[in-house]
Design goal:
OB fold (Dihydrolipoamide Acetyltransferase, E2P); six-stranded mixed sheet; 22 strands; elongated; single-stranded DNA binding; NA-bd_OB-fold
Length: about 450
């Protein structure tokens, strides 16, 4: 089973009373898949839809075979399949049961095989460049998940309980990410095992939309959408490698492409940065971001304090902060938090730095992750093994020294009212007179 329907739709029929319907898509080879519609009582449909989900290997017995009709309105709410037929299962006349034969794993492996060639996928750059023409159209996409939001429970005006989860996806064709919202219960549960910058998705017939409230392009999953996760194709590795520079530590619902420090040439004072942040963010309401070199003194860098103030430990799946690397998160929607799997945690540097120049202060700049390891010249594990004296010695390499600090700056928003100053590199400034003297000495030697 590769696509179960989200909801049980109810129909009142004079002859049979209340009936419910459930649909899903089956696949038994790399090329062949077919849609199935099940009719029955509400209790019958509820039991079936709770018993079988994505990845279930099933046997459909005595189903009615019908030819698909191109002019059938229901076709637009079902995936486009390779078969010209569809299956109808009526309660009492047909049966769906688990398949427990030795061939079980053979069918399970189909979950990571695309149902069509990934060459049909459009790039996000093409979509964003042609958003007006493609809005409300259905497209295929090969993308990597870059951000995973929390699961949210909602109540509709008519009292129905719904669950949704937001994601950001990218493909390396542009530095922008696009939002993806899931409403399907089964896919939301499976997304608990997804990892940013590692999980690849092949989306077939995803709907392109423009969110007027957030002023950004979003992807909508409809009943006709097929999703293949961790898709096993060579192009997947290329896309995964292309987004490794995306910033996952920004506490916002957007992922940002982090600039290469070597390409940053704009020099700004603290005052100029502050003035730019106080201006209106951007014309379309997206979060302001820019990079700059600040020539400033390091007034504080907490390298010799308690480790809990220097290193952060997060669940690798849901990104919740935890106290100890051996602990699991407390998120019951996460496989690590609810006990389905053992804790999977990530330890990273999270160093606070304060800067000062002649025009003002930047308080709470962040030196995190790989950037911190590169600047300090050690891994998190090596840092933890150091004595306090060694860490203090490392601290005084920068404290009170004037440095060229390259920053990636994210402006405030209505949801996150504080600007973020991410440190990409720190280089000690060489006094001009000393630099000239060294040049003279070097020249005189030759």
């Amino acid at each position: 089973m590769v696509r179960p329907d989200t909801a049980n739709r109810r129909y009142d029929e004079v002859s049979n009373g209340e009936r419910s319907v459930w649909s899903f898509t089956l696949r038994d080879t790399e090329e062949d898949f077919i849609n199935v519609t099940v009719w029955g009582s509400t209790e019958f449909i509820k039991k079936l839809s709770s018993t079988f989900n994505i990845g279930s290997v099933v046997e459909v017995i005595s189903a009615k075979i019908v030819r698909r009709q191109p002019n059938d309105r229901n076709e637009q709410f079902m995936p486009s399949t390779s078969s010209p037929f569809a299956l109808i299962v009526n309660e009492g006349a047909a049966l769906i049961q688990k398949h427990d034969a030795p061939t079980h794993e053979q069918y399970k492996n189909l979950l990571t095989r695309p149902v069509k060639s990934v060459t049909s996928a459009k790039s996000l750059k093409v979509i964003l460049d042609n958003i007006e023409a493609l809005c409300d159209r259905f497209v295929d996409l090969l993308v990597v998940v870059t951000f995973i939001g929390d699961t949210r429970n909602l109540i509709t005006r008519d009292g129905r309980a719904l669950t949704c989860r937001n994601f950001e996806i990218a493909d390396g064709s542009t530095d922008n990410t696009v939002s993806l919202m899931l409403w399907n219960k089964d896919w939301i549960e499976r997304s608990a095992f997804w990892e940013p910058k590692k999980t690849i998705l092949f989306l077939i017939d995803a709907r392109i939309a423009y969110d007027e409230y957030k002023k950004k392009t979003v992807l909508s999953i409809s009943r006709r959408t097929l999703i293949t996760e961790c898709v096993d194709v060579p192009q997947a590795l290329d896309i995964m490698n292309a987004v490794q520079h995306y910033d996952l530590d920004s506490i916002c619902s957007d992922s940002f492409a982090v600039p290469n420090p070597d390409t940053i040439t704009t020099i700004m004072t603290v005052q100029q940065i502050t003035e730019k942040l106080h201006k209106k963010a951007t014309a379309d309401g997206e979060r302001l971001q820019f990079a700059a070199i600040v020539k400033a003194s390091v007034t504080e860098i907490n390298l010799d304090g308690p480790l809990k103030d220097i290193i952060s430990i997060k669940c690798a799946l849901c990104k919740k902060i935890i106290a100890d690397v051996q602990d699991s998160c407390m998120n019951l929607n996460c496989p690590s938090g609810n006990g389905i799997r053992t804790p999977l945690n990530v330890i990273k540097f999270n160093i606070k730095i304060n800067l000062k120049d002649d025009t003002g202060y930047l308080i709470g700049c962040r030196l995190i992750g790989d950037n911190a390891e590169r600047i300090l010249g050690c891994t998190v594990e090596e840092f933890q093994a150091m004595t306090v004296e060694k860490r203090s010695e490392m601290k005084w390499q920068y404290l009170l020294e004037k440095c060229d600090v390259r920053l990636h700056i994210l402006g405030p928003t209505s949801i996150f009212p504080r600007a973020l100053y991410n440190v990409l590199s720190i280089q000690l400034c060489v006094d001009k007179e000393i630099e000239q003297a060294l040049e003279l000495v070097t020249t005189s030697e030759y």
